[in-house]
Amino acid sequence: MRRLGIRQRLRRSVERVGYRCVYGLADLTHAIGLATPRSTVAGRYWSYEPRNAHGDDPGLAALAALPDDAVVLDIGAHVGEYAVPLAIGNDRRVFAFEPNRESANRLVRTAKRNGVAHRIELHRIGLGKADEERPFYRSTYSKLSAFDPTAADRWGAEIEAVETISVRRLDSLVGETVDPPDGIKIDVEGAERDVLEGAERTIETRRPLVVIDVHEEAARPMIEAWFIKQGYACSTVGDTLICRPSGGHG
After folding, report:
1. β-bridge mates for residue 146, sequence order
2. Could you give the CA distance from residue 198 to residue 204 in angstroms, rounded to a whole number?
3. 25, 43, 60, 218: most buried by Cβ count inside 10 Å?
């Protein structure tokens, strides 16, 4: 038992060093403006990220198969690794939601570098189950920044600031400041259920394709059950849940 404990601690230490290197390198490439070409299942684009984390992403592939004039919502957009390639070489309209200031600024820069800033509308807010103001925990690893403090200090990261950020229900925005979606991507560090509760009317009426990066495996059955209740069928590819309305739409 003691030997197993040592192995676990060693593995965690190695993982923390690895994450520190990955996120530190990302900070450097963004700081010096080093953009390199990336090939993805949605097409090629220029990225300031040091690695091509979503090159063969099944969720990105599913959204890229939507029509060229589709409306896509990127919820938890980070630096635009979905939003930017989905907007290149077509007439899609992408609405990106990213409450973390640093990540949002990087998304804007990447969109401009790829000539698609005019087709990506950025909302610097969070989405959830209520229209409210909430504390947002900004992590030293920008991708981990979240409304949940336990998500923001994983893998050796630390919380470097706490800000008050607006959170809106998607149902409050669609039809007013956001176009009705044909596809939705959700990557919100464990807050998937809150986003879905605030988007229930939109999903019931618009029947979009929904792609979710599930962060907590225990939540997957509940999320799938929620979609089944809405008349959807879901498939899992790796950590990605792809949900399509029954009857072939989406």
Report:
1. 137
2. 12
3. 60
CB contact at 8 A, 182 and 71: yes
120 occurs within a structural domain: yes
DSSP the chain: -HHHHHHHHHHHHHHHHHHHHHHHHHHHHHHHT--EEEEETTEEEEESSSS-TTTT-HHHHHHHTS-TT-EEEEET-TTTTTHHHHHTTS--EEEEE---HHHHHHHHHHHHHTT-GGGEEEE-SEE-SSSEEEEEEEESSGGG-BSSHHHHTGGG--EEEEEEEEEE-HHHHBTTTBPPPSEEEE--TT-HHHHHHTTHHHHHHH--EEEEE-S-GGGHHHHHHHHHHTTEEEEEETTEEEEEETTS--
Structure confidence by residue, pLDDT tens digits, 124-138: 999 999 999 999 998
Joined tokens for residue 14: 């190695």
In a domain, residue 60? The reply is: yes
**Please, are residues 169 and 199 in contact by the beta-carbon 8 Å criterion?**
yes
Residue 157 lies in a domain: yes
Residue-range definition of the domain harbouring residue 60: 2-245
**Distances 219 to 146, 187, 238 between C-alpha atoms, Å:** 17, 14, 15
- Give residue-wise pLDDT tens across range 23-81: 778 888 999 999 999 999 999 999 999 989 888 999 999 999 999 999 999 999 999 99
Strands 36-40, 132-139: parallel, antiparallel or unpaired by DSSP?
Answer: unpaired
Q: What is the pTM of this model?
A: 0.90
Here the CATH number for the domain that contains residue 48 is 3.40.50.150
Cα–Cα distance, 6 to 29 (Å, whole number): 35
- How many domains does the chain contain in total? 1
